[in-house]
Amino acid sequence: MSTPEIAPAVVDADFGPRPPRASRTSALLIAAAVFQLGILAWMIAGTMMMFRVTTAGYVQVVPVDPRDLFTGEYVILSYEFSRVPAGGIAGLPGPYGFENREAWQGRPVFVELIPDPARPDHFRAGPPGLAPPAGGAPYLQGTLESPTEITFGIESFHVQEGEGRAYEDAARERKLWARIDVTSRGWAMVKGLAIE
């Protein structure tokens, strides 16, 4: 008597062991999180590198009217050089009105920072112009926003709760100075406030 031959088992691919899908999904989620963290780190590092080499100094703050009650613990800062002079901006013919706003609104404006001889870390501003000053002097780059105002990105500063009133009072008395760091391209950041 012979033994019956047993046919080899056929393995159905649909019922065989499957690789866990959770590991592929987890890997995709981890890769997405790493990518997002990398973008965030790149943005922070870019800002830090931009302000790595700066000119530091103080500029005087002038009072702002009217007072905005909805700014919380931010101090609103204004400067003499934030105002368009009566004669306009050198190289940009006026008047700056609604009918010709395409010619002036949003234009980059440059203001040279001139050190005070008595206090070299305190600056006053030269007249605004359409080009950076020659000779490597420190300057601010702003934007002509309205017929009377140039913005530089240093018009507010966050302070600890309860300290804003003292800074606003000092600005009214013209005793408030903003400590700014300025890059070689004229971009500025407020680093602190000082009452002198």
Describe the protein's architecture and organization:
The protein is α+β, with helices and mostly antiparallel strands. It has two domains: about 20-50; about 55-195, no CATH class. It is built from three helices and nine strands. The protein has helices at about 20-50, 100-105, 165-170; strands spanning about 55-60, 75, 110-115, 120-130, 140-145, 150, 155-160, 175-180, 190-195. Strands 6-5-3-4-1-8-9 form a seven-stranded mixed sheet. β5 and β6 form a beta hairpin. The longest helix is centred in the first third of the chain and has 30 residues, at about 20-50. The N and C termini lie far apart (about 115 Å).
Please describe the structure with a list of short key phrases separated by commas or semicolons.
196 residues; alpha+beta; 2 domains; seven-stranded mixed beta sheet; 28% strand; elongated
